């Protein structure tokens, strides 16, 4: 039989198709795939009016594939479409030896490659604790709670130092779909509303006389981009990124949601975006969300960006693990060396390993609570925006500091007197002094 003619790109009809696009299984050549990917991000930015000319944007950079692709795409689109943006990189050093210190080296290279200023802010400087010290104190179980809460505040504080009012993060469609599924299973509609929003912000006018670090806008330009396509884009653009998993990442509830989403995607490629769109529609059911935009009104001033419940670290919570990334990279390398007439095969993620024989909790899911409209205020200790009198970070820090009686400032909040006692001050860095 004569050799089969190579399949042509579905868009240009000229070049040989090399990529089977995960989102819709269309067959594309490399230039067309890159163009389509960038054009879709541009459409997300313009249709949601994410930026305005002259705006200074801080890119939350971890060195991973999502934030690296985000920085590369924003630089490209900013020049191509003349957005008129000033782009800077903002990295948070959680203090994890063997992981974050290595990934920050990647971020430093990215800063030179993209010609963007880089600022690195550490947990130790802000809170008096590194994550290594936190894990040593509390163990690996539940440590991501500390890291997620600290990281969200750290990004806002870092942005305030830079005089930036807008931070962009690399959350992708897979992340949002996982969060929608998690909150749906928990029956938490208000949190689902926040997590589906492409923009979260808390203008000072809506939240009272708050400190400047609370008036930070957050957005997700990669919200509708598949994780697999982000990997393909990074691979074919030869981007420099870090793909090792956080050494403290657990297989928690999000891991189960991730596995379910990936299984659904294998059966129905559009499943990820279907879940995201369904989450947006359900968000409109939340009382007070009258907005007709895709965020279901969740981008209004009533949504506290500081309290988003999404993956915090860009690796463990909602991101592809290091082993899965290595599998993808090997798969892509094999595709390039494949026979002349073969198409690049769709990337697949290995099935997650079964967890140990852990018995489920007797009570199962948490009891459903009635939906309550949040009232934003100011943390009594550090001044950070919170729907509680004391923010999550201060509550966690108080517990850590109580375990280290030396070299710290006691943080005690008297509910009856409505004030902080025992020498605590209205400054996070002083109130959070920890070991050493």
Automatic annotation (TrEMBL):
<feature type="domain" description="Cytoplasmic tRNA 2-thiolation protein 1 C-terminal">
    <location>
        <begin position="377"/>
        <end position="406"/>
    </location>
</feature>
<dbReference type="Pfam" id="PF16503">
    <property type="entry name" value="zn-ribbon_14"/>
</dbReference>
<protein>
    <recommendedName>
        <fullName>Cytoplasmic tRNA 2-thiolation protein 1</fullName>
        <ecNumber>2.7.7.-</ecNumber>
    </recommendedName>
</protein>
<dbReference type="GO" id="GO:0005739">
    <property type="term" value="C:mitochondrion"/>
</dbReference>
<comment type="pathway">
    <text>tRNA modification; 5-methoxycarbonylmethyl-2-thiouridine-tRNA biosynthesis.</text>
</comment>
<dbReference type="InterPro" id="IPR014729">
    <property type="entry name" value="Rossmann-like_a/b/a_fold"/>
</dbReference>
<feature type="domain" description="tRNA(Ile)-lysidine/2-thiocytidine synthase N-terminal">
    <location>
        <begin position="56"/>
        <end position="245"/>
    </location>
</feature>
<keyword id="KW-0820">tRNA-binding</keyword>
<comment type="function">
    <text>Plays a central role in 2-thiolation of mcm(5)S(2)U at tRNA wobble positions of tRNA(Lys), tRNA(Glu) and tRNA(Gln). Directly binds tRNAs and probably acts by catalyzing adenylation of tRNAs, an intermediate required for 2-thiolation. It is unclear whether it acts as a sulfurtransferase that transfers sulfur from thiocarboxylated URM1 onto the uridine of tRNAs at wobble position. Prior mcm(5) tRNA modification by the elongator complex is required for 2-thiolation. May also be involved in protein urmylation.</text>
</comment>
<comment type="similarity">
    <text>Belongs to the TtcA family. CTU1/NCS6/ATPBD3 subfamily.</text>
</comment>
<dbReference type="InterPro" id="IPR032442">
    <property type="entry name" value="CTU1_C"/>
</dbReference>
<dbReference type="InterPro" id="IPR011063">
    <property type="entry name" value="TilS/TtcA_N"/>
</dbReference>
<dbReference type="GO" id="GO:0032447">
    <property type="term" value="P:protein urmylation"/>
</dbReference>
<dbReference type="InterPro" id="IPR020554">
    <property type="entry name" value="UPF0021_CS"/>
</dbReference>
<dbReference type="Pfam" id="PF01171">
    <property type="entry name" value="ATP_bind_3"/>
</dbReference>
<dbReference type="InterPro" id="IPR056369">
    <property type="entry name" value="CTU1-like_ATP-bd"/>
</dbReference>
<dbReference type="GO" id="GO:0002144">
    <property type="term" value="C:cytosolic tRNA wobble base thiouridylase complex"/>
</dbReference>
<dbReference type="GO" id="GO:0016779">
    <property type="term" value="F:nucleotidyltransferase activity"/>
</dbReference>
<keyword id="KW-0963">Cytoplasm</keyword>
<dbReference type="InterPro" id="IPR000541">
    <property type="entry name" value="Ncs6/Tuc1/Ctu1"/>
</dbReference>
<dbReference type="GO" id="GO:0002143">
    <property type="term" value="P:tRNA wobble position uridine thiolation"/>
</dbReference>
<keyword id="KW-0819">tRNA processing</keyword>
<keyword id="KW-0808">Transferase</keyword>
<dbReference type="GO" id="GO:0000049">
    <property type="term" value="F:tRNA binding"/>
</dbReference>
<keyword id="KW-0694">RNA-binding</keyword>
């Amino acid at each position: 039989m004569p050799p089969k003619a190579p399949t042509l790109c579905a868009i240009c009809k000229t070049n040989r198709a090399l990529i089977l696009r995960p989102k819709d299984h269309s067959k594309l050549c490399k230039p067309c795939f890159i163009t389509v990917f960038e054009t879709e991000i541009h459409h997300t930015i313009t249709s949601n009016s994410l930026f305005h000319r002259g705006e200074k944007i801080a890119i939350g950079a971890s060195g991973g594939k999502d934030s690296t692709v985000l920085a590369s795409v924003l630089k490209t689109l900013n020049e191509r479409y003349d957005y008129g943006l000033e782009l800077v990189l903002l990295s948070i050093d959680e203090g994890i030896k063997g992981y974050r210190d290595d990934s920050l080296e990647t971020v430093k290279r990215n800063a030179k490659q993209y010609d963007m200023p880089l600022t690195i802010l550490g947990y130790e400087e802000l809170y008096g604790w590194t994550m290594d010290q936190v894990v040593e104190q509390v163990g690996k179980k539940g440590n991501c709670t500390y890291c997620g809460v600290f990281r969200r505040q750290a990004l806002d504080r870092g942005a305030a130092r830079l005089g930036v009012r807008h931070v962009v993060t690399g959350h992708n469609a897979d992340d949002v779909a996982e969060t929608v599924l998690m909150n749906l299973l928990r029956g938490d509609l208000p949190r689902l509303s926040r997590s589906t929003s492409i923009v979260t912000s808390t203008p000072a006018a809506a939240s009272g006389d708050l400190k400047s670090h609370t008036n930070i806008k957050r957005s997700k330009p990669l919200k509708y981009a598949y994780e697999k396509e982000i990997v393909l884009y990074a691979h074919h653009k030869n981007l420099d990124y870090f793909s090792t998993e956080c050494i403290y990442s657990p297989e928690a509830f999000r891991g189960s949601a991730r596995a379910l989403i990936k299984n659904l995607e294998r059966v129905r490629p559009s499943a990820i975006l279907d879940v995201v769109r369904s989450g947006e529609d359900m968000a409109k059911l939340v009382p007070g969300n009258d907005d007709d935009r895709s965020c279901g009104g969740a981008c209004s001033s009533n949504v506290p960006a500081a309290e988003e419940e999404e993956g915090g670290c860009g690796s463990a919570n909602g991101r592809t693990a290091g082993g899965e990334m290595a599998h993808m990279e090997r798969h892509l390398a094999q595709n390039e060396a494949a026979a002349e007439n073969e198409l690049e095969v769709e990337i697949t993620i290995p099935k997650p390993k079964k967890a140990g024989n852990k018995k489920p909790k007797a009570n199962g899911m948490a009891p459903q609570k009635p939906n309550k409209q949040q009232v934003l205020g100011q943390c009594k200790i550090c001044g950070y925006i919170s729907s509680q009198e004391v923010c999550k970070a201060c509550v966690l820090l108080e517990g850590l500091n109580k375990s280290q009686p030396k070299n710290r400032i006691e943080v005690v909040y008297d509910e009856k007197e409505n004030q902080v006692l025992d020498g605590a001050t209205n400054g996070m860095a002083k109130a959070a002094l920890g070991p050493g």
